[in-house]
Amino acid sequence: MSDSPRPRFETVAMDALMVRLFDAISEAHMPWILAADAALRQHFGDALIDLVPSYTTLLVHYDVVRLDHAAARELAREALDGLEPASSGAGREHVIPVWYDDSVGPELPRIAERLGVEPEEIVRRHCARDYCAFALGFAPGYAFMGLVEEALATPRLKTPRQKVPAGSVGIAERQTAIYPMRSPGGWNILGRTAVKLFDRQREEISLFRPGDRVRFEAIGREAFIEQGGDPTPMEERG
Amino acid sequence: MNSSSQPAGLVVERTGPLALVEDGGRFGVRHLGVTQGGALDWVSLGWANWLLGNAPDAAGIEIAIGGLALKAEATTRLALAGADLGAELDGQPLAPGASFMIEAGQRLTFGQPVAGLRAYLAVPGGIDAEPFMGSLSSVMREQLGGLDGQGRALGVGDRIGWRGATPEARELPVSLSLPDEETTLELVAGAQIAHFDGASLFAAFNQPWRVDSRADRMGVRLTGPVLRCGLGGMISEGIPLGAVQVPPDGQPILLLNDRQTVGGYPRLGALTPLACTRLAQCMPGSAIRLQAVTPWQASKANRRQLDRWR
After folding, report:
1. A31-45, B3-17, B197-211, B294-308: lowest mean pLDDT where?
2. Is the CATH number of domain A93-237 2.40.100.10?
């Protein structure tokens, strides 16, 4: 658990302030971010329009008809006074089955080659940790997760792909993520999951929320297809 | 003729560069990576709605640049505000900032921009469709919202229905203006502004900027003096509407309604929501000036606009 943060409040827009709690990325910060999220939601109540937690900050977008700038700052200060970190059970846990394979994860053999190990070893190491969802962004349901072990850290592709298929699981530097829908992207793709991250038929439309914990589990091609996965190889889709 | 069981509406006969169903935007879901969306010029959408007695944020159509042609299947009253895109009702010119009756079988067509860039068409009671996450706003990149929930632009054959009865005519209480040769955009200074060097800040607020052709509903690039920021890499954080972000090339990007929800470039602050509406009407090549205002000045002006609709 990290030390108690000293919140800073910054003006970022007519109707938004940034609450800054930390200056570096760490999984140990998330219990504080989650606690701040809950406290800000409670204190702002109906005057809150949106609250966007990220690695080290929370963006508070408030209703200027109800609160002026000074009142919003004061409210945020009050909300975070005497803040205690959220309990370890605050974020939900997910296990995401992934079919790791060259055909749907073209960078899997490349990273293995770079480290001089078999692809199975890369899979084992990617599945060995719980990852924390630091923030959602880029696309609906897209969670920036981490941290992957240092040796697996890989820079983004020099030229992003035009189309990364839905369900693609990737790595960029020490972060890992899943593409909820087909979109352009520059992450190194290791495999694919059949799990729907953003499903409008489901009551919880976004599977992930900031602060959730995620573990990957390797499955075979058959299980992937049985779960509804599309095994079309990556390159064919461009 | 409307021969099916579907209610009568406006049928799209021809499309232009881009026409989208937009309302006041989607809120309370940005922590899930879902962007705000909504009418870029929410003031013009608000006036178009006001002309029909609708709530200011009721869903209407945002027509960029022109080209759209609609045929009415029933008689009703519609309202237009925002850009003058050469709109005509069966060949008779329509000025923005007014409502008009359209008879079943008549055509509403848009030509090319005369002034401004985005026109807003309001329908009685707002557009009738199923909201997604509390809004009808179409976000193409996210494949959310609009008539079918997939965020698509209006296409030929789409039918736009409305929720309300035909209202009485109303006259605008103010005259609406569109951006002039040079547009001043108010900016609430903040975020990482302290990390920019003095010469850059002086230039940012004293030299003219030009709207680049790289402009869409996510953001608008400006070209002009190169702004230098001492901050190296930044950890991504939530991005407010109007954020003036400066990537390493020193040329600002003004982030609008369909922006990504988090980002990691240093920012000078954010345009006021009212300034964003004026930016949305600026053609590429337009001259822009940035003017710093306090959050109090900005919210006072914002409240004045909202009060006009009460």
Report:
1. B3-17
2. yes
The 8 Å CB, 24+ separation contacts for B141-146 are B141/A139, B141/A183, B141/B35, B141/B218, B141/B258, B142/A139, B142/A140, B142/B34, B142/B35, B142/B37, B142/B258, B143/A181, B144/A140, B144/B26, B144/B34, B144/B37, B145/B21, B145/B26, B145/B37, B146/B20, B146/B21
Q: Which residues of B touch A14 (CB under 8 A)?
A: 188, 270, 272-273, 295, 298-299, 302
Strand spans (E) along chain B: 10-14, 18-22, 60-64, 69-72, 76-84, 88-89, 92-93, 98-102, 107-109, 115-122, 159-160, 182-189, 209-215, 219-223, 237-238, 243-245, 253-255, 262-263, 267-271, 287-293
Residues of B in contact with A53 (CB under 8 A): 31, 238
| Lowest mean pLDDT segment, chosen from A102-111, A151-160, B83-92, B175-184 | B175-184
Candidates A12, A23, A24; nearest CB to B190: A12
CATH topology for the A8-80 domain:
Gyrase A; domain 2 (3.30.1360)
**B1 falls within a domain:** no
B6 has pLDDT over 70:
no
Number of domains in chain B: 2
